[in-house]
């Protein structure tokens, strides 16, 4: 016996139906992806698909060398040509890289893209958090107006609504810009330094590298310290304050509910002004309750060697969204319309051909290619939860007629074999 090989820890198989254990069935994933594509198209966002592997320098320069993502969590390797490559840990930097590389700014003044795909981080695992995780993200490049920030938030709100996820709240903040953030930064460092001994080990390190990250530390001791920390919103310069006020005014005008939360700093170095998070109040996710978030990154394009254009974007965790939907008990798989069963040995080819023909005509048809007794086929029909079964034998072949049996109540419907599609489509549900 050969030894079996398992999948990589933290990277999941997504399987159809109930086969996938803790993960949501693939039908839930398909539903979320389909809903996303339809909705985002209505907002004028086009889909991009960038490679899963990028030059390591892209993430070092955009996400930031001092972040946990780049410092500790990236899957980085050397390829056979000696280049340092990394599995993408997030989707914004690749989108911006593609935008710059294809000189998109020369072709359109405002670009709006979305993506759906896997990202990779070597993280400690907990519920809804994996090393290969899937994100839905969108980026809007070219507008510095508050309307662009609000359009993105509205798009997420409408997506969550369309998915039936109501217990999610929008938390909103502004991180200021180069004109006002340094003064805040200094005050924050002074305050945190005075409370250094009360902070967790990670935050003592963050105090040196990325002090704003202390604000969203989940450690209780740190949260107690942060309670009385200086508030970024009191340090905003006039233009940043006006931008933030306009974001709030436009959200109000659309009827989008939000709470202002000055602790929303996000993990990445490149954010400026607006940041936001969508936080789910749902026990299924345990402590991992942020389903997504984003913000404005007006300096990133220039920092990556591109044009000096403002941008704003978000990312949503597809793993968490699908877990929430799975918990909600909605069903996303549809049963077969008809199960074709073979009554006698001579009818196998005709039944097989009938199944093929009905599929061509648009029905979802199950057929047991293993053959076997009629009894075993009917057991299989039950198992597939087919709406109807049709038994095909010599009598049916000769008369061109059969009986559609509705599985829910056993009622039989006489049918011409040439009119099965019409009968199935017009029959009232049991
Ligand atoms: Zn901490
Ligand atoms: Zn400012």
Automatic annotation (TrEMBL):
Sorted alphabetically, the keyword list is: Aminoacyl-tRNA synthetase, ATP-binding, Cytoplasm, Ligase, Nucleotide-binding, Protein biosynthesis
- Where is each Aminoacyl-transfer RNA synthetases class-II family profile domain found? 28-335
Indicate whether 4Fe-4S appears among the record's keywords: no
Q: Taking the first listed entry, what is the main subcellular location of this protein, grouped into a coarse class?
A: cytoplasm
A GO MF term? ATP binding
- Summarize subunit and interaction data from the UniProt record for this chain: Homodimer.
Protein name according to UniProt: Histidine--tRNA ligase
What lineage, starting at the top, does this entry show? Bacteria, Pseudomonadati, Myxococcota, Myxococcia, Myxococcales
């Amino acid at each position: 016996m050969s030894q079996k090989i398992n999948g990589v820890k933290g990277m999941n198989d997504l399987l159809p139906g109930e086969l996938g254990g803790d993960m949501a069935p693939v039908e839930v994933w398909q539903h979320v992806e389909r809903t996303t594509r339809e909705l985002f198209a209505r907002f004028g966002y086009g889909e991009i698909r960038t490679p899963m592997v990028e030059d390591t320098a892209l993430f070092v320069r955009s996400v930031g060398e001092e972040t946990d993502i780049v410092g500790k969590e990236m899957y980085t390797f050397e390829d056979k040509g000696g280049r340092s490559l990394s599995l993408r840990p997030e989707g914004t930097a690749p989108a911006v890289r593609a935008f710059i590389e294809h000189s998109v700014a020369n072709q359109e003044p405002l670009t709006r893209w979305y993506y759906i795909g896997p990202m990779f981080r070597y993280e400690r695992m907990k519920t809804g958090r994996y090393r290969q995780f899937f994100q839905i993200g969108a980026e809007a490049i070219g507008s510095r107006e508050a309307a662009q920030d609000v359009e993105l938030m509205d798009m997420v709100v409408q997506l969550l609504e369309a998915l039936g996820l109501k217990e999610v709240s929008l938390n909103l903040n502004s991180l200021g810009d180069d004109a006002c953030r340094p003064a805040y930064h200094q005050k924050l460092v002074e305050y945190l330094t005075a409370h250094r001994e009360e902070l967790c080990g990670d935050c003592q390190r963050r105090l040196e590298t990325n002090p704003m990250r202390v604000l969203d530390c989940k450690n209780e001791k740190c949260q107690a310290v942060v309670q009385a920390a200086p508030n970024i919103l009191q340090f905003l310069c006039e233009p940043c304050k006006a931008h933030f006020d306009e974001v709030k005014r436009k959200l109000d005008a659309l009827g989008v509910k939000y709470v202002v939360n000055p602790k929303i700093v996000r993990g990445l170095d490149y954010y400026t002004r607006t940041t936001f998070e969508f936080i789910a109040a749902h026990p299924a996710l345990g402590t991992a309750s942020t389903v997504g978030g984003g913000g404005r990154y007006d300096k990133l394009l220039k920092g990556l060697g591109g044009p000096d254009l403002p941008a704003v974007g978000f990312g949503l965790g597809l793993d968490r969204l699908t877990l929430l939907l799975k918990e909600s008990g909605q069903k996303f798989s549809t049963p077969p319309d008809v199960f074709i069963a073979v009554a006698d040995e001579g009818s196998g080819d005709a039944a097989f051909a009938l199944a093929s023909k009905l599929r061509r005509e648009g029905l979802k048809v199950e057929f047991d290619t293993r053959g076997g007794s009629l009894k075993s086929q009917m057991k299989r029909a039950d198992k597939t939860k087919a709406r109807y079964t049709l038994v095909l034998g010599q009598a049916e072949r000769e008369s061109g007629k059969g009986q559609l049996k509705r599985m829910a109540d056993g009622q039989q419907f006489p049918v011409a074999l040439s009119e099965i599609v019409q009968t199935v489509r017009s029959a009232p549900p049991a």
